[in-house]
Amino acid sequence: MPSLLLAPALLIAAHLAILAGALIAGAGAEAGRPLAGVTAAAAVVFVPVLAGFLRAPRVLVPVVMAGWSLLLLVLLPAILPQAPAALVNQGFGLACGECQGVGERVYAVLPDLGGASLPAAPPALPPSPAAARPAAPPPLTDSARPEVEPSVTASPAHGDIVIQYETQGNSIIVPVTFEGGRTIELPMLFDTGATLTTLDQAALDALGLRITADAPIITTQTAAGPKRSPIALISAISIDGHRISNVTLSRCAACSTEQARGLLGMNVSGRFLITIDTSSQQLTLRPRSGGETKDVEAWLELASSAVVWPDGRIEITLSGKNRAPIPVGRAVLSVHCDAVTEGILDSIPPGQTTETTISMPAGTDCTNYRVKVSEASW
Length: 378
Fold this sequence. Notes:
This protein is an alpha+beta fold. The chain has nine helices and 18 strands. The protein folds into three domains: about 5-115; about 150-290, Acid Proteases (Cathepsin D, subunit A, domain 1), CATH 2.40.70; about 300-375, Immunoglobulin-like.
């Protein structure tokens, strides 16, 4: 290779290596282990490349680097359960919040190189302004199309929300409006078993929501079992005009389907008294007060320490760090010994820690005490 071409060839090869690294790092982030993903990317992509740089003749270095990286980009998606374009976006998102959309551009070209064995990425949701009608979900086949078209009406007598829902097997699908950087209506599975509301990466990208590398990673219960995933906070969601502010979302690729973009979890469904009429396919939601506890709890990092005084009294210091981008107004913590006592944390600014101390009477058995969030609000 002429020396004049060596520099641009190295530049192209380096770009391919970075893309392959982003794919592996994104797979780690999707699994809730971003640090492991970055480490694996370095080991799988850059260590072999470095070895080639040190041992191969100089003119072959860009060929080795580009060939190995391209092989990873083409073959790895065949064994990864998530869409490769979304994983590349997630990998870049760990270091660059403005780099979204790279994955779609890469895999618009790579399927032609990888042949039929390479799974195509699902279409990303297009950005949509607040006044625009959002893009429809992927089309249903005739055999899967529900008989009842979705329509939403409200019962003004009691403030109830009455939704004519669609079905997917035994699941209920309802339209929900999300207000992030952009406002989009999405079809969601009404899942009373999911702890938090979930969205896939394509929906998060369309809303302009970025999950940072240092976002809390929590274990949530879903109908498919426990899932570890990072979380984000969205400004509001709306169900038939009933607006709920500051809702916590978790990212879950496995929770989306062709008909629904995610799960509407108990942090939303728990705010309503729910009635389901299967004969008419109507879901009635009656709003009730409170309901922010699950949203706030996901962002609180709790700690505690206990001191036993000579007279038998026990003092337990409770602290809560607010990892959310907005203040926590109040959190009530319950301490479970052989009796239950509560402590209150008031006004926790973003990134700050507030603590309180409670006293337990002499003779209380706190050998294996537990601390839980019993109530919380923004």
